[in-house]
UniProtKB/TrEMBL annotation:
UniProt keyword terms in alphabetical order: ATP-binding, Nucleotide-binding, Transport
Domain ABC transporter: residue ranges: 2-226
GO MF annotations, alphabetized: ATP binding
SMART domains recorded: AAA (SM00382)
Protein name: ATP-binding cassette domain-containing protein
Domain of life assignment: Bacteria
Length: 228
């Protein structure tokens, strides 16, 4: 689905945060991205999504076709749910989803939206401005929008943060369902269980370099030891 070769990203060009990262994700696969705080995970995900200015990529292929992070056909098929998002403070979920429908040229899927709202127990906040939501509810709104978009490539940056237990379980179910539907998922997290539950391979970002993928260990403690 996605092949990335030699992606570098920086705030100071002389000192890149991510250097020469290369990886691929297949349809129906969830891959984990791990690294200590400040390793560069968010920067890398933003760079892939044309949301970070300081970056270069040797080659990027979406379904085998060469693209750039700015190519419209690629942008319509990838969605980045950020770890923290304070954009559109006056908008509600319904307003945001309508906006995304126009931006992504996608029709509104009322049944799917209702299902996601119910699954994340978000019903009472549906019309509330984002600025009025708790951190967990704001995260739920972001995830509902991401799964509703039904794009080929879902990039989820620390999606578990702030979620309560049942929302976390529902998130894992949705990731597994996304895989079943053939979507590709790249997931960053500091919760080892997210990877053992949802991913088959892990990428480790350390000192600016991305490792070759390793199979996700079955035991959460072995996930943590990969970045120790
Ligand atoms: N706007 C910025 N200007 C300068 N440096 C920044 C900026 N944003 C992030 N950085 C630095 O870039 C590095 C990578 O940050 P990034 O947020 O990508 O890491 P991360 O792996 O997502 O971290 P975390 O797990 O803590 O969320 C860090 O050293 C961070 O301090």
């Amino acid at each position: 689905m996605l092949e990335v070769e030699h992606l570098s990203a920086w705030y100071d060009r002389k000192n890149p945060v991510v250097r020469d990262a290369s990886f691929g994700i297949s349809p129906g696969e969830a891959v984990g991205l791990i690294g200590v705080n400040g390793a560069g995970k968010t920067t890398m995900l933003k760079a892939l999504c044309h949301a970070h200015r300081g970056c270069s990529v040797g080659a990027l292929r979406y379904r085998g076709r060469p693209v750039t992070p700015a190519t419209a056909a690629f942008k319509r098929q990838r969605y980045l749910a950020l770890a923290e998002d304070s954009s559109f403070p006056t908008w509600s979920l319904d307003t945001f989803v309508r906006f995304l429908g126009r931006a992504y040229g996608a029709r509104r899927r009322a049944r799917l939206l209702d299902e996601l709202v119910e699954g994340f127990d978000f019903g009472r906040y549906r019309g509330a401005p984002f600025a009025s939501l708790s951190s967990g509810s704001r995260k739920k709104a972001s995830l509902i929008a991401a799964f509703h978009a039904q794009v080929d490539i879902l990039l989820l940056d620390e999606p578990v943060d702030f979620l309560d237990f049942s929302a976390t379980e529902y998130l894992y179910q949705r990731i597994l369902a996304a895989k079943e539907h053939g979507q590709a998922v790249l997931l960053s997290s500091h919760i080892a269980e997210s990877f053992t539950r949802c991913t088959s391979r892990l990428l480790v970002l350390s000192s600016g370099s991305l490792s070759a993928p390793v199979p996700t260990p079955a035991d959460s403690r072995d996930v943590a030891s990969l970045i120790a």
